[in-house]
Specification:
238 residues; alpha/beta; Elongation Factor Tu (Ef-tu), domain 3; Rossmann fold; 5 helices; 11 strands; globular; Dihydropteridine reductase; FNR_nucleotide-bd
């Protein structure tokens, strides 16, 4: 297993609680849209076994052509040891990345795509939208729906409705409006539905989509293949 130790080249305060850490991109490090990586702090591999409290799975919020590995995360005032250490890191400090993989690459199958996310989960979708806006072939349209109760919506420079590209972006700040809109979007019985958020958020979306006749094959989750059955099983009970 190859472990990269890139330096933090820039820290962006996206909102009062959300930061993006832009890391130097090693020459031989590449990825595709929808990728996540193991993101670890100094000392995680100092002992005989990895210190898992210093490791997190993080989505990469940038594309290779941006020449930086972007890690976007929410850091609240009351946070874990990992987030507390991360919050105090400065430009020039090294972090570790390894085991990079994409569970949700952009499917170009000539269909409508719906991106359903909660809060900072939007970071997973940022590269998909950039990839689509750069090249729209074999995608009919994309609609992004994000719920964030903080009302500090992310990446509004990219997630903005662009009619000429058949891209629409919608933000809501409460569950009632969000799930009502999910039901409306599920009227498209041939669409592809990407879902990113907590396990609870995934299950709630899946329950609504399936009640509207959307099949598991139409749902793309940011989960390893072996984890999908516990979310998409036909006899799933919530």
């Amino acid at each position: 297993m190859q472990i990269y130790w890139p330096k933090i080249k820039r820290i962006i305060e996206e909102t009062p609680e959300v930061k993006t850490y832009l890391l130097d991109r090693p020459e031989d490090f590449t990825w595709e849209e929808g990728s996540h990586t193991h993101f670890a702090l100094e000392g995680f591999n100092a002992g005989d076994t990895p210190n898992r409290s210093l490791i997190r799975h993080m989505s990469i919020s940038t594309l290779p052509h941006e020449n930086a590995i972007g890690i976007t995360t929410r850091i609240k005032e009351q946070c874990s040891e990992f987030k507390s250490i991360l919050n105090n890191l400065e430009v020039g400090k090294e972090v570790a990345i390894f085991k990079t993989h994409s569970n949700v690459p952009l499917k170009r199958e000539g269909k409508n795509i719906y991106l359903l996310s909660a809060g900072v989960g939007l970071a997973t979708f940022r590269p998909l939208v950039l990839s689509y806006l750069d090249r729209t072939d074999n995608v009919n349209q994309i609609h992004s729906l994000n719920i964030d109760s903080s009302k500090d919506f992310l990446f509004t420079d990219i997630f903005k409705t662009t009619p000429e590209k058949n891209f629409t972006a919608q933000f809501v700040d409460n569950r009632e409006d969000y799930y009502a809109e999910v039901k409306n979007l599920a009227a498209d019985k041939d669409g592809l539905f990407y879902i990113v958020g907590s396990d609870e958020f995934l299950l709630q979306n899946i329950e609504i989509l399936r009640a509207q006749g959307i099949t598991p094959e139409q749902m793309m989750l940011d989960k390893r293949e072996k984890e999908l059955p516990k979310f998409l099983s036909f006899d799933l009970t919530i």
